[in-house]
Amino acid sequence: MGKVKSAIITALLVSAIIILTLFATISFGVSGSNDAFMINIPFGSELSGEASVTFYPEGVIAEAKYYSDTYENEEKANEYKDKYELVEEADVYVEKDKLYETVDGQQVDARNKFIQSIKADAELLSERFGEKGYSSYSVTVVDDYLIKVSIPSGLNYVQSRLDDVNLRNTAYSVASHALNYITVDGALSIRSGDTYSDTNALYKELDKSNPYKFNSFFKGASVFRMSGTTALKIDLTDEGFEEMNKILTADGDSSTDASAYLFAGETSLGLTFTMGTALTDKSLFFQSTSDSSEDYAILINSIAHGKMLTNPLSDVENENIIISSPVAGRNVAIWVGAAVLLVVLLAAALPIIKYKLLGLVNALMVLTYSIALLVAIYLIGIELTIGGLFAALLGLALLSFSNFFTFEAVRRETALGRTIESSVKLGYKKSLFGILDIHVILIIAAAVMTLVGVGELSACGLIFLVGSIASFALYWFTRFMWYVMSSLVRNKFAFCGYAREVEEDD
Amino acid sequence: MTKLNPALKLRIIAVISFALIVIGMALGTILHFVSNGFFNYGGEYASYKSVTISYSYIDFQNRDDIEEICTTAFDEAGLKYYAKLDGSSFSDEKQLEFRFSTGTDSEALEAVTEKINTKITETLSEFIESQVIQANALFSEHQGLLGGGYSLWRAAVALAVIVAVQIIYTMIRFRFSAAFTAIAIDLHNLALYAALLAICRIPVTSSVLVFGVILTLVTVIGVTFTLERIKRNAKDNSSLSVEDLAELSARQTLKTNIALPALLAIVAVLFFVAVAISSLSISTALVPMALALASFAASVYGNVLLMPYVYIFIKNIGRKIAAKPSKKKGN
To answer: B124 CA to chain A: closest CA distance, Å?
Structure first.
């Protein structure tokens, strides 16, 4: 390759890296333009904190609410005095019906039974939130009577740094939807209107031995994604399909409008069916956002499998959601980012000491890998956690390992007195199968992690999948750039930092 | 110096591994029934105690006053919190939450909560009386849940599939003995990792899954790399015995098998330093780093020390099995 051609290719690559780095890190104040994409990557709760809500099961109210409700209201005060009892250790008032029950005409303590039912509800919620695939989440029973659910706040770097509700509006809405719908209690039903109290159930339960029969009409629910369209997909059983058609095509039902609505407990899921129109397929699709579809699918699956909460929980308003700073402090993202930057810079700089200009080729690959990973994480919308960053660096280690392994193989060939060209050819040939074996297994392993794992494991798997593929592609690109950049220098051995073996004359 | 034969080396290394794994499993099983679980569940699985100060204000800006009242009260009572979280709601209600480990004395925490409430009322009386600020401290005990272990069993399935894929690939590329070696080392490393966690009682968070999988990936890299070297050495020098072949290949791959886990351990330490600086608490960052180091220790031990001898052992068994029919033929 000519020197001019190689200089142009090198300059193009370096320019691409610089331009992408600029777009990644700098926001341009042009109207309608997006911010730097690095800024828009959502962080997991380790880096940006969590959104949490404390739920009050039915029959439990906060001490503060008790006082605010009864303040200067004697009638209410008397009513509450008869109805509630203070549980001091939890600072809550609990309905006496929940704390005591009558057995054989005698009042017995039912406190433990109530506490156990709250714990069982918390276990079920933990299972439901586990299916949401959050990088981390927690469900705790607080002081025996309350349930606290914490999920990642989903804030990006700027939102997590600036404590402003307007900037966090979207995050509040997404968290609020998940916290509201995944925690819904009660069985599925189909009703004539969107408001529970004003409407009738369209499927009348006749079989008293199976009061939740309507639930069994649902085989399951999932999120359907195709070409940018997201929908909730509900699969009906054969019996469910027939029964739903009977309901939807029944004459004379006093429907308040021409639609039927799916409810879970007393909560409308906002999923409507057109009355008078028979279903043609056992799979039903409801267009919705990805997050909302996930929430509905988790809820419907849980209820369809007979898993319902015993105690209805308090509703979630945006006002109840607390967004907290990360456990490791407000600046954790900056410090971890600095650590990642240091690792990347060391991975780029240290090989230059050993391999001279060949190390520079490797440095270009390290930077290309880093930018490629950032772009992929941003475009795919992966929630970034410390584990995810570690997975990305594992991919970087794989790339560096592949390159050094090959550089050493080439060095061994040059030690036998071969030219650089033939050494590179042989070195790559000899190291090919080792590198290929490792990449094939790791790419499959990463795909398995992504598809089978949930939460942080799945996110890490996806990052590592992109990293492994990038590593293998850049491994070959290293060879190309080695060829291109070494064309610029006369002494190819000095370019690689290899000592030239001089054959001695006899 | 007398050179130990491979069989003896395998015996020594395997006994150490076996002892560690048995101790870890036994300890974990006992603690599962008498204490807080097989592992010391922490993080999102954790139970903890908290003192939360909720405050709302109109134009009172000095949150640091509240924090100072709390930290002074904790210091005076000799109570150490492991995390401090600043929270805010959509209606701009603020929260300052201090988290304590479950071992912290509840009575002492309740007493200090009352003290904080009194102190807040005294110090900020001017703001409270004029209703510029409302502040209240509350002590709570949080009981963590495993949630049916959903993420744990999905991770276990993922690991099982990864190991299965590696075995199938190894079987195709390097034959049966190599596949058996791979599965033995994979299982050994994972068991050793689990045992180390059970013994050290490191609080287990979801990071345990991530590092468990990273351990498997590092094991896959190390084992595949060594097997490939064994195959190439066997091709280049067919006169070498299985023992010499395995030991030579292990020596050749020694640097890589140590360097990769070591590099990842260094990255884990760097992360540890970053998190520790941010949280101003070593304990917060110690857990993931300890998990990382446990996984890398398991991978180096399995890949470097155990693997060549397991390979020799399995290869010799294979030879014996292969030799049996020929003996019969000879008879």
So the answer is: 20
Q: Among residues A290, A324, A358, which one ends one of the domains?
A: A324
Strand order in the sheet with A84-87: A60-62, A92-95, A84-87
Rg value, chain A, Cα: 31
Flag if A325 and B85 touch (Cβ within 8 Å). Answer: yes
Q: Is A269 within a domain?
A: yes
Question: Are B85 and A327 a contacting pair at CB < 8 A?
Answer: yes
Domain count for chain A: 2
State the sign of the Cα–Cα–Cα–Cα dihedral A165, A167, A173, A179.
negative
In a shared domain, residues A51 and A38: no
User: A142 and B142: CB-CB below 8 Å?
Assistant: yes
Q: Does the beta carbon of A444 lie under 8 angstroms from any beta carbon of chain B? A: yes
Tell whether A314 and A446 lie within a shared domain. Answer: no
Q: Where are the alpha helices (DSSP H) in chain B?
A: 6-34, 63-77, 106-123, 125-129, 150-174, 176-200, 207-236, 242-279, 282-300, 307-330
Residues on chain A touching B140 (C-beta within 8 angstroms): 142-143
Q: Verify whether the Cβ–Cβ distance B210 to A319 is below 8 Å.
A: no
Is A88 among the domain residues?
no
Question: Is some CB atom of chain B closer than 8 A to the CB atom of A375?
Answer: no
Residue A95: inside a domain: no
Shared domain for A263 and A410, answered yes or no, is no
Q: Are residues A359 and A426 in the same domain?
A: yes
Q: What residues of chain A lie within 8 A of the CB of B212, using their CB?
A: none
Q: Is B118 on the interface with A (CB under 8 A)?
A: no
Which string of DSSP letters, residue by residue, matches A98-153? HHEEEETTEEEE-HHHHHHHHHHHHHHHHHHHHTTT-SS-EEEEETTTEEEEEEE-
Interface membership of B271 toward A (CB under 8 Å): yes
- Give whole-number Cα distances, A91 to A66, B43, B267, in Å: 11, 25, 45
Residue A331 forms contact with B (CB below 8 Å): yes
Q: Could you list the pLDDT tens digit for every one of the 506 residues in chain A?
A: 677 887 888 888 888 888 888 777 776 766 666 666 777 788 888 888 888 898 999 999 988 888 888 887 888 889 999 999 999 888 899 999 899 988 888 888 889 999 999 999 998 888 888 888 787 788 889 999 999 998 888 888 777 777 676 777 777 788 888 888 898 888 888 888 888 877 778 877 666 677 778 888 888 899 998 877 889 999 999 988 988 888 888 765 544 457 888 888 888 888 888 888 888 888 888 888 888 899 999 999 999 888 888 898 887 777 788 888 887 778 888 888 999 999 999 999 999 998 989 999 999 999 999 999 988 988 888 888 888 898 899 999 999 999 998 999 999 898 888 888 899 999 999 889 889 999 999 999 999 989 988 777 888 899 999 999 999 999 999 999 998 888 888 888 888 888 766 555 44
Residue where a domain stops, chosen among A279, A302, A324: A324
**Tokens at residue A26, please?**
């700098």
Strands A92-95 and A84-87: antiparallel
Q: In terms of domains, do A426 and A366 share one?
A: yes
Q: B140 in helix, strand or coil? A: strand
Give the SS3 label for residue A380: helix
Provide the domain limits for residue A210.
45-57+112-324
Residue B321: count other Cβ atoms within 10 Å of its Cβ: 9
Q: Assess B37–A contact: CB distance below 8 Å, yes or no.
A: no
Q: Do B146 and B45 form a contact (C-beta atoms < 8 A)?
A: yes
CB nearest A339 (choices: B165, B206, B274): B274
For residue A63, tell me if it sits in a domain.
no
Size of interface A-B (CB pairs under 8 A): 233
